[in-house]
Amino acid sequence: MDQLRSTYPDRVPILLANGVPFLWESRDVERVRTEHNLCGLLTGTLPLIPQQNVFLGMPLRLLPEEVVLLLRRRAAVLIDDAHAYGAPTEEERSEYLAHEAQEILDQKERQRRQQEEHRQRMEAAITQESGDARALERRRARQAAKQAKGQAPDETPEENEQDVLAKMPYVHHTHSTSAHLPAYHPATAEMNTGTTNAYLTLQEAQVAGVWTYPSTLQERARCAAFEALHSKGFFLSTGLRFGGDFVVYPGDPLRYHSHYTATVLATPQQPMAAFHVVASGRLGTAVKKSHLLCQANTIVLDDAEALERRLAGYDDATESTPALPWGNAEYWSLAWAGFGT
Start and end of every tRNA intron endonuclease catalytic domain (predicted)? Predict the structure, then answer.
């Protein structure tokens, strides 16, 4: 990853897990937020927080539209993480399991030594307080009898000690990096240069089959509306909880409440029932926002033609020219006049 960052210092690495895009490092989250006005959605847990329904942690999951925007800005590199590394061999698996077992044994040995040191300190304290060595002998006799009671008749002291170690609890440590694992190596030699399983454009990702969004007329319309609103300085996030495709903020969501919920229509000719218009207006009022109907007049309507343009690189920017827009977007703001907003 460090070599990949040095190869593409101006791009944020986006890791794909089963087709879902994630940012795993805080510096990348900060960068896309401060430089590109993209928020994403935190999906990880915070171990020290008793409830996991208010504040969440890394990784940050990006919206598909956010990934497309970053790629079209030449600001991201898409990494197919599942295929970036080879499967471990049987020898490497055995080495890893043996290393794990040795770590657990070492941890239990440390606990046993700490218990023994604690016992010796307690005995010294008892002798010092009572001044009677016989009290210490009686304590040792009680402990020996208790230990002998728990030992099987045909069990040797060495076997009993192994039994005690086996029953001792241990803590499983998750390392912050995988570099120490014997099977952690690139799947191919080309990965050493940061080229294999790393894609810089929508065209490359489409050819490899790792990222096909947007592939339908509705998805292209969503991208058109997203990029149009984003270009006006708005921050956007998923609008599912407010009944729309996006929720729109006038600035950083850490400073502002959202002002709009947005629903995207695939084409200007897409029919919309009257009760849907009324419902959208009432929904916006219920959640204390204006509801936007976004009409995207996309350049390409046919999916096959859109795929040809993608494979030809028309959806991507070059070093000298920005990416062509998906299409023009227009908006209508709805409000339920019976209640006011």
Answer: 222-294
